[in-house]
Structures are given as structure tokens and as C-alpha cells.
Design brief:
binds FE2/S2 (inorganic) cluster; three-stranded antiparallel beta sheet; binds iron/sulfur cluster; Ribosomal Protein L9, domain 1; single chain; Alpha-Beta Plaits
């Protein structure tokens, strides 16, 4: 994983942190609070232009985790999401929310996260995160998920193990949702394709070996 450069924007009551590499311009921030987040202004984030509670609320909508915050006024910090969910977007990344650990195959915890966008086209230069490369390569994949009826509460730690030159191995209680939010697949263990080549997306079918996928 590449080192992340985090920019800080100080307000009186809240400090906002921003990772340019993780931002794929879904624009929830700019649409939600244009007085605070304005791409045409420098600095582009002015935390004092609204209440700290509002700024925190909008940051929680950032699907990639590019934005995070720390309160300076004793206000509530970011809560853990109520469930571990993976949203499969059409032609795009996997949006993950939850109590997430990104781990190496030998069990090293590389990162702890609550919101992230994971590459599933295989082309990101910032793996395992999405960097919008799917747009450049014209990645096509449906946002469909096969439905199952597993009675499971998707809470607790969700481990995302980055298999070398292979899939994202999920461990823990989680639910995977289709892009339309209708089909839900619940499980405790599954491998998700991140090479872009699986014939059974979003799941891995071993194609990464045939195509010589490199996870670097
Ligand atoms: S919501 Fe997050 S990913 Fe979207 S534009 Fe804002 S910072 Fe970037
Ligand atoms: S990672 Fe794509 S098929 Fe295994």
C-alpha cells in the first residue's frame, strides 16, 4: 500500500483531514456544504464556514474515506457504522462501510477504516483503493449480486485481506449489496474479484491467475 499524504484544515471546533489520493470526486461534500467545501477556492476547505456538527455530518457521507475529522470542541467523533456493508457499483468500485481492518496475508493490520472505495477493475495505481482508473480503461461490470437468505447480523470486525496478486478475502459478518440496493448477499467469508477479470463478479473465480494479475 502506498503512503497516504493527508492535508489538514483547521477550524476552531473541528479539524478536517483530506487525502487527495483517496478522493474520486463523488462530490458529496461540495453538494452537501458548498460554503465549507469549494473546489474553486484556496484553501478549498474552510471548516469554520458552518457548524462543526454539520461539517462532521457531511464528512460521514464521503464514501471513500478521503475526508475524516477530529473534533476540538468535545463533540462526537466518527461513530462506527452500524453494519458492515459492501455496495457493488456498476462499472465502478466496491464501497465499503463498517468496522474494517485491511490486513496483509500474514495477518498484519495495515489500516483500520470505516469508509473506503476498493478497486475492482484491477487498474488502480493506488491499490487496494479506487483511483477512478475504471473510467480510463472503460471497465464494465454490472452492480448485480446474487441474493441469499443467510440470517446473519453484519456487525463486528470485517477483515479485508489483500491476497498477493489475488482477490480481496473478506472475513467477518458482512453484507454485499447490489447497486440498486435490492439484492443482498450475507456471509462470513468470501473472496471478491479485484483483477477485473472474473466471470462471476463481484466474486473471484480464479481468473487472476490466468491473466497474471499484479496487485502492486
Ligand atoms: S465526498 Fe469524498 S470522495 Fe467525494 S469529492 Fe468529497 S472528498 Fe472527494
Ligand atoms: S481477483 Fe479477479 S478472479 Fe480472482
Amino acid at each position: 500500500m502506498k503512503k497516504e499524504r493527508i492535508y489538514s484544515y483547521q477550524g476552531d471546533a473541528i479539524e478536517v483531514h483530506y487525502s487527495l489520493r483517496r478522493c474520486i470526486h463523488a462530490a458529496e461534500c461540495v453538494r452537501g456544504l458548498p460554503a465549507v467545501f469549494d473546489r474553486d477556492r484556496r484553501p478549498w476547505i474552510e471548516p469554520d464556514h458552518d457548524s462543526a456538527d454539520r461539517v462532521a455530518e457531511i464528512i460521514l457521507n464521503c464514501p471513500t474515506g478521503a475526508l475524516t475529522f477530529a473534533r476540538k470542541d468535545g463533540g462526537a467523533e466518527e461513530p462506527l457504522p452500524a453494519m458492515n456493508t459492501i455496495l457493488v457499483t456498476e462499472d465502478g468500485p466496491l464501497y465499503v462501510r463498517g468496522n474494517v481492518q485491511i490486513n496483509s496475508p500474514d495477518g498484519l493490520v495495515l489500516k483500520e477504516e470505516t469508509r473506503l472505495a476498493l478497486c475492482r477493475c484491477g487498474a488502480s495505481k493506488n491499490k487496494p483503493y479506487c483511483d477512478n482508473s475504471h473510467l480510463k480503461i472503460g471497465f464494465q461490470a454490472s452492480g448485480e449480486v446474487r441474493e441469499n437468505q443467510l440470517d446473519l447480523n453484519p456487525v463486528g470486525i470485517l477483515e479485508v485481506v489483500l491476497a498477493d496478486n489475488g482477490p480481496l478475502r473478506l472475513k467477518g459478518n458482512f453484507e454485499i449489496m447490489s447497486s440498486d440496493g435490492i439484492s443482498i448477499f450475507r456471509s462470513t467469508k468470501i473472496s471478491l474479484c479485484r483483477c477485473g477479470g472474473s466471470g462471476n463478479k463481484p466474486f473471484c473465480d480464479g481468473t487472476h491467475r490466468k491473466i497474471g494479475f499484479s496487485s502492486q
